[in-house]
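Quick review question:
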């Protein structure tokens, strides 16, 4: 008996063995023009078998790439696009670099590190003062939203000095926002939206059906 496990492995199983056999036959056709016609016919059949591919961007080119892969990149025809090659297919994507994710104070988030770095790099005294105020106010709001409690300004200042290892010092006469409204909104329970009452339907007056008079 002929078992699938004994047959050659299909390169794209989604298209089935019949398409694979058609592609193998196309590769063996000696006349180039006939191979071109056979290839176009196969791509049309692949499109009908996989109609959802039309929702993808540049789907027609992807079909020709799949035809090249089905032929094990050996089909010699007049390709309508620069198709994928075996070298490109076998290339592995570059490994993405991930941060270690270590955050000293989670309630401030990861973004505070880049903000403090900008603060360290600022050389203009006035701009540095404004930036310090912005960073400190951001940290205070973040703390209140996370912890749901108020925090003194001097604690925020000490943490900025600590996070920057003393490279940033607190400017004189800096005062942060109160942000009690942030605390109140964070502690307030979520209110369900009130359901709108349906307008009352007018009641019919009198008898809607008049009796017919007998003549």
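Suggested answer, residue by residue:
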């Amino acid at each position: 008996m002929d078992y699938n496990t004994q047959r050659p492995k299909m390169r794209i199983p989604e298209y089935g063995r019949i398409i694979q056999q058609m592609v193998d036959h196309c590769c063996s056709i000696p006349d180039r023009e006939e191979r071109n016609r056979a290839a176009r016919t196969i791509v049309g059949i692949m499109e009908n078998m996989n109609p959802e591919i039309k929702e993808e961007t540049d789907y027609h080119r992807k079909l020709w790439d799949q035809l090249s892969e089905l032929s094990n990149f050996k089909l010699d025809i007049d390709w309508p696009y620069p198709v994928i090659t075996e070298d490109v297919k076998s290339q592995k994507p570059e490994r993405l670099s991930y941060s270690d994710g270590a955050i000293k104070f989670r309630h401030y988030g990861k973004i505070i590190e880049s903000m403090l770095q900008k603060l360290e790099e600022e050389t203009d005294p006035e701009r540095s003062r404004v930036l310090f105020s912005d960073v400190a106010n951001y940290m205070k709001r973040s703390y209140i939203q996370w912890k749901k409690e108020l925090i003194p300004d001097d604690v925020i200042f000490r943490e900025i000095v600590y996070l920057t290892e003393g490279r940033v010092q607190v400017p004189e006469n800096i005062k942060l926002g109160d942000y009690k409204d942030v605390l109140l909104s964070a502690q307030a329970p979520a209110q369900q939206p009130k359901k709108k009452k349906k307008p009352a339907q007018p009641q019919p007056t009198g008898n809607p059906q008049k009796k017919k008079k007998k003549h």
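Why it works: The longest helix spans residues 125-147. The chain is about 45% helix and 0% strand.
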